[in-house]
Amino acid sequence: MDPMTNSQARIAIIGGGISGLTAAHRLRELLPSAHLTILEAAPRPGGVLCTERRDGFLVERAADMFTSKDPWALHLCRRIGLESELVGANEAGRKAFIVHRGELVEVPQGFVLMRPTQLSAMLTTPLLSPLGKLRLMMEPLKRAKKDESDESLASFVRRRMGQETFERIVQPLVGGIYTADPERLSMAATMPSFVEMERRHGSLIRAPQATRSEKDASGARYGMFVSLREGMQQLVDRLVERIGQDAFVCNAGVQSVQPANDHEDGGRWRVRTMDDEWNVDAVIVTCRAPHAAQLFAELQPALSDQLRAIEYASTAVVVMAVDDDQIGRPVQGFGFVAPLVEQRKILATSFASAKFPGRAPYGKTLVRVFIGGACQSELLEHDDHQLIEIARHELRELIGLAGDPLFAEVVRWNEAMPQYHVGHLDRVAAIERSVASLPGLELAGNAYRGVGIPFCIRSAEQAAENVADVLCASG
Description:
Layout: E1 10-14, H1 18-30, E2 35-39, E3 51-54, E4 57-60, E5 66-67, H2 72-79, E6 86-88, E7 96-100, E8 103-106, E9 111-112, E10 115-116, H3 119-124, H4 130-137, H5 153-161, H6 163-178, H7 187-190, H8 192-201, H9 212-215, E11 225-228, H10 233-243, E12 248-249, E13 254-259, E14 269-273, E15 277-280, E16 282-285, H11 289-295, H12 301-308, E17 312-323, E18 335-337, E19 348-351, H13 352-355, E20 364-372, H14 384-399, E21 407-418, H15 424-436, E22 441-443, H16 453-474
Parallel strand pairs: 1-2, 1-16, 2-12, 7-18, 16-22
Antiparallel strand pairs: 3-4, 5-11, 6-11, 7-8, 9-10, 13-14, 14-15, 17-20, 17-21, 18-19, 19-20
Helix pairs in contact: 1-10, 1-16, 2-16, 5-6, 11-12, 12-15
């Protein structure tokens, strides 16, 4: 693709989170002379990614790492000069635990999300009863699903490995990623590799191991995760620097996107906020699907309906700092998850200072407790003080936490996690067909084909490349 040199090209990007920032950066690479306007409703760019320093602690308010298995985030960090700032998870303590009858039990060695690669570990784990283990060992004998229709995670795991493996191991591990209802979560959209294993090999256990690292993994595959030395804010700050501060318009909630009424100034699209409007040649929409649905309500009612059908879940993160000696039963690992069957009021707990260096002063621990999600949304009706007390109570029972924290705060992410329900990929395909009929308009973000940072980056870069192709063809 030859870079477009027409300095009159104008592009609006709606949303200044990681998807919007990535799209803008990619456009800077492809169309260096284009005029970019990034419209962000919040007072600052970055979306949920935000790192703060407090009393010597490095506090992440949302994601604190990304996977290196999916390469797009790593590639971006290298292109923007952050490779030397990447840090891997600490070698010691790369373990994950599951709450089991009030105790923390290590995820069986070699169990990766929903695939047992070391049967000896599964036969000795206390997470399953003898009958549960027998049912799991029968997995290779179960017939593969004949049709290619989508099904829920709960249905898939029960069918292949039984109820116990589902509710005691798979549900909490996957629930910690998607904060979703497993009875509605789409296998095709979230775990396609496991669907393919069944299709090709008839069994997850019989499928050949991809790598030795998979055999040695434990649940969360911490060896595949990386972060940045000064937190995820480094990624936001570097992208903003590379894009240029003059491209950002904050506190600017977009109200509509419409075709321009005339082309006297060359504009194809008109983007309106409460206070202003822009005529541009292309638009990339990276905001949440419900907001995008509002933007297209008049332009494309069918597209608006498709976007509105993507549901979202809310979570709260209780961040606490404590002295190490306040933890009566120290955990030699990075965190634990709580199965729904345990009836706990938390989804998961992460020991942030154990995962990456520089997160807490010596002798102190930084803990993040996750509450809410699709299956426990009622808990978010509590105020911040009550959520902190819930977290303290749960940690007191599970790890012997004593005394008052050095500090505690609640970060709420309301309607922040898109839910990939059964049939999600069909819905996304319909959305993409609708968007394809609107040249110069693109959608990107975590609502479509992946919720993690790498997938947001891939989505945004593809949207930017599509826009560049359209503008180059018309320029």
